[in-house]
Amino acid sequence: MSKAGKEIITGAQQALAYLKGDKTKGRAYKVRTRDIDVKAIRKGLHMTQEVFSETFAIPVSTLKKWETNNRVPEGPTKAYLTVIEKNPHAVKKALHSAV
């Protein structure tokens, strides 16, 4: 077996051991992405909280929590907000043509 093949098998075995609770096997990584300033995105689009919420299907209460740092958007939500920031017209078109 090739060196790469052996490394793949070893990695799979370590991952399985890790999943079974043996934290000495394998490695865990945490990827940190850039912080996202929801308020700056909204203000950059010249929208009130209510308009932003309605336009992008985000509850006003959630938006307020993000803007006051009581909650932080993560994962897919962070990606969604990044797309809104970079191409809001595409998001609007996708959301409103789906209805």
Quick recap:
The protein is an all-alpha fold and 99 residues long.
Describe this structure in words.
By secondary structure, the chain is mostly helical. It folds into two domains: 30 residues; 60 residues, 434 Repressor (Amino-terminal Domain). It has six helices and no strands. Helix 5 packs across helix 6. The longest helix is centred in the first third of the chain and has 17 residues. The mean pLDDT is 90.
Which properties best describe this structure?
99 residues; mainly alpha; 2 domains; 6 helices; elongated
| CATH topology-level fold name of the largest domain | 434 Repressor (Amino-terminal Domain)
- Alpha-carbon distance between the termini? 54 Å
Enumerate the spans where pLDDT stays under 50 for 5 or more consecutive residues: none
Proportion of helical residues:
55-70%
Radius of gyration from the alpha-carbon trace, in angstroms:
21 Å
Mean pLDDT across every amino acid position = 90
CATH-level-4 superfamily name of the largest domain: lambda repressor-like DNA-binding domains
Overall tally of domains: 2
Quaternary: single chain
Listing every helix as H and every strand as E from the N terminus to the C terminus, the arrangement reads: HHHHHH
Number of strands: 0
Q: What best-fitting shape do the alpha-carbon axes yield?
A: elongated
Tell me about the largest β-sheet: none
- The CATH architecture of the largest domain: Orthogonal Bundle
Number of helices: 6
CATH class of the largest domain: Mainly Alpha
Structural category: mainly alpha
% residues in beta strands = under 5%
